[in-house]
Amino acid sequence: MPLLRRRRPHSLVLALGGVLAGTLALTACSSSGGGTAESDAAGTSPAAEASEPLVIYSGRSESLVGPLLEQFSEDSGIATEVRYGDSAELAAQLVEEGDRTPADVFLAQDAGALGAVSAAGLFGPVPPATVELVPPQYSAEDGTWVGVTGRSRVIAYDAQQVPEADVPTSVYALTDPKWSGQVAIAPTNASFQSFVTAMRLTDGDDKTQAWLQGLVDNDVQTYEKNGLILDAVNAGQVKLGLVNHYYWYEKAADVGAEAMRAQIAFSAPGDPGALVNVSGAGILTGGAGEDADAFVAYLLGTDAQTYFATETFEYPLVAGIAAAEGLPALDSLQGPPVPLERLEELPATQEMLRDVGLI
Questions:
Q1: Looking at domain 151-275+334-355, which of 1.10.10.10, 3.40.190.10, 3.40.50.150, 3.40.50.300 is its CATH number?
Q2: Measured between alpha carbons, how far is residue 74 from residues 55, 71, 80, 149, 220 in Å?
Q3: In sequence order, which ranges of 78-186 are alpha helices (DSSP H)?
Q4: pLDDT of 294-316, one tens digit each?
Q5: Which of 193, 324, 334 lies closest to 267, judged by CA?
Q6: Cα 220 to Cα 218: distance, rounded to the nearest angstrom
Q7: Element at 63 (helix H, strand E)
Q8: What pTM was computed for the model?
Q9: Quick one: which of 246, 218, 254 has its CA closest to 330?
């Protein structure tokens, strides 16, 4: 496993400059309605002071993105109001609220949640100049949402109990009786549900349901979150677990890579376990115009992309930003051939998980 630098304090991570800072400054001025010489001298116009905050529904946890959103407000002068929650639950809430939603932007943990909101017709277009910053396979084809970071599914394993050569290269091997009671999953987690959706779309419902039932019959261990799975593997409580790659890097940055009992392995190319999903953002129809546009553009700016690479250890999606040391190149990961926007087919996946008793 790679050597990792200790995590830097969040306050030292970001310092917006260059083109992005100029863009945000111009946006802040335009949203204030111009201003007078007196208001310019004061630094803030009366209209800007009275403007409504940008309302963000965030399926990313506050511990992960809170410092970044605070920095956005500090650097742009755009006030934000953030509602944190599970991506799937927030997507359902947005669909229920419809055009009555107070949200301006949806920042989601995975493409499935973004696709569900897009399918309901609740997103307006992301500015083309912003969408073009990201390779097309990581955004909606119709431009209604854009990927922000990439994350690969991996198998975490207890290196003290499982030699690297014995780690399964396919998730289908996890139903083997030799792993009975030793595999951990998070069935209510949005990333797991998107992964199962990709399996359904690639290999069909019958094979996917048989695999899920095989996990149940093999006494699969269930946890609420990916981080809890990694902790269980690291403590030797289970031998294997399905997580997103960056959980290992975050924990290793905190405790030291040399102290990690848990390690991670990437599944074989084409296997459902090799899915590369994205976090991403969409702008609600009737959202806060230029402020919402500026926020999404900020997420794809150099400093924010560097933040994600060095602080949350996700894959940056903008060219020229290096991923964390030791990660395989993003374009070398070959997941199942499923367009990410199709991961919005979550209801059938959730029904399947209920049918086998996993949720």
A1: 3.40.190.10
A2: 16, 5, 10, 22, 46
A3: 87-97, 111-119, 128-131
A4: 999 999 999 999 999 999 999 99
A5: 334
A6: 6
A7: helix 62-76
A8: 0.81
A9: 246
